[in-house]
Amino acid sequence: MDIRFLPIFAFGLIGGIGAYFIGVPMPFMLGGIFGAACFVLWYERDNKRLPKLSRWVRLVFMSIIGAMIGSRFSPELLTLLPQFWVSGLALIPFILLAHGGSYAIMRGLGRYNKLDAYFAALPGGIIDATALAEEAGADLRIVTTQHFIRIILVVSSVPLLFLFVQGNAVGSLGGETLSTIDYDFTDVALIVGIALVGLFFGQLTNLPVSHMLGPLLLALALSVGGVVEIAIPPWLGNAAQFMVGSALGAQFSGVSRKLLVRGLGMGVLAGAYMLFLAATFASILVQFVPADFGAMFISFAAGGLAEMSLIALSLNFNPVVVALHHLVRILLTVWFGNFLSRRVFKLTPEAKQH
Predict the structure, then answer these.
(1) Which CATH number is 187's domain given?
(2) Nearest-angstrom CA–CA distance, 303 and 4
(3) DSSP 45-85
(4) Is pLDDT at 78 greater than 60 in this prediction?
(5) Single pTM value for the model
């Protein structure tokens, strides 16, 4: 690896540690993006350019994150499915409306081109959206900036909304993760093994975003089926988020101040629109599912799966219900995003090679 990449990861680590201590959601992911991006923007201020960081840095650690997310589900998932089929189906129109409205904002007000606006508007996470965008040839600087701002807005504002509206604050659980300190080497080996096997079979079967969905689906099947029960060490999740975040921050190479300012405005508008849409769906769905408005709102608010699950824990909502909805949202967003992009932009596997 080029020695010029070392400061990127060093500043990503500084950003992650700083974000952790001030309580930023997804600290090592978001802090890593911020720290690495700051270094890149500073380094390139005199028209210097860094070499392109290998995409495999992200792909390998994305597969580990996919395996960790999938392993968080237990056989309890099977008993909850029949009770929430209505809200599960409602995710389809929610995703289409969220994506369509955000796309209109990106195109009409942001003046982004169609390809960049399409992937910047996806109601998914940073990892899956940027993976799809990279495969399609979209500008990762634009896509990463928009999702970065949206996730910060959603994850930060949801607890504040509950505080101001209902007087419920995110308590001590706000600083926890979905990991545990009760683990051993076998757990680490299982996660890495599932990640590598899932990555291999995901690519073999041509799954969209195979490096994430392959490990996620494999881990989910093994966990729900009761085959394995994995304890995830906190450092592994933090390390994976840090590596992916820092690598994404490196994609800000060549970004302008104009793009950052425009991205902030579009991110706030798109994030606010998605929160309003989530509240609308939640107010309707409470009549059909065994959950109250707060649980449904958190289930549809387009933030990160882990972070929204933590917010659910802090507010005494069922985290499995919330996590289930966000997992379905992620899977459907990836599927719809990949399916529609191939038809709208006439993308082919050959055209997506870089």
Answers:
(1) 1.20.1530
(2) 33
(3) GGS--PPPPPTHHHHHHHHHHHHHHHTT--THHHHHGGGGH
(4) yes
(5) 0.70
